[in-house]
């Protein structure tokens, strides 16, 4: 037998040992089948287009997320249709209580529109995608029909590019939504900071057309950034006044010293003008749920980020 044939026999015997187990009971054939199936399954996964592979980025530690499930919701009498909440998971308690409160007030919800900053400038003005999120609470699925509808007005679909795989503005919220609403779908939107206000308004109006009575809009926003604790408190006092008074002009023109989602508020304003009763139009109707600072969690009073959560009814 020549060297080539000997090498072939060696490879065959080696593979036989790997799959069937050298020295083990040769009647145990079932493990061979399962290992082969696993190899085939892995190969098929590798061949899948990247646009069909879910997002599995870990945005919050699973144990920290689990611990927040013991928190209680806030008291809320009305029927909110929109809200604002943080995306820093440092304040995971704020996120948890926000969505627990929404669940008590609106158990009927089927779609969550999440309006996030495009923190890493991966998109083109207003962007979205259709990728599923793998979370500690289950898989959160995007309402893909709305992705197609928004494309018609110029919203960029970053699904194929996986452009928002690491965007915490949506990723941090999704586990909390999935835990409270496992049957609901999400509609993520990513807004660049330089988005013109007229385009933001156009998106808000289109969302109002697509949505129904079982839709909830969330502006994903951290508030004051990079300030000393006292300065951040003063900034938040202004932001809270704008929210309570419905001072949308100031919200929509704010900088990171007040909010990182100024254009997100522009989208929300246009949405509320279409959805709230005639004459209300988003002027007032804001109900504060929580107000915290990063300094409440970590001892750094010189570089503070703040968190405000609340709803519009």
Give the tags.
single chain; 313 residues; alpha/beta; Protocatechuate 4,5-dioxygenase, Chain B; 8-stranded mixed β-sheet; two-stranded antiparallel sheet; 11 helices; globular; disordered N terminus
Overview of the structural elements:
- With 313 residues, the protein is α/β, with parallel strands linked by helices.
- It has two domains: 3-47; 58-312, 3-Layer(aba) Sandwich (Protocatechuate 4,5-dioxygenase, Chain B), CATH 3.40.830.
- Helix content is 40%, strand content 16%.
- It has helices at residues 3-20, 30-47, 62-67, 92-105, 144-151, 168-171, 174-180, 197-210, 229-245, 248-252, 262-275, and strands spanning 82-85, 111-117, 126-128, 133-135, 138-140, 156-157, 185-191, 215-220, 286-293, 306-312.
- The strands form two sheets. An eight-stranded mixed beta sheet has the order 6-3-7-2-8-1-10-9, sandwiched between helices.
- Helix 8 (197-210) packs across helix 11.
- It is globular, with a radius of gyration of 24 Å.
- The termini are far apart.
- 42% of the residues are buried.
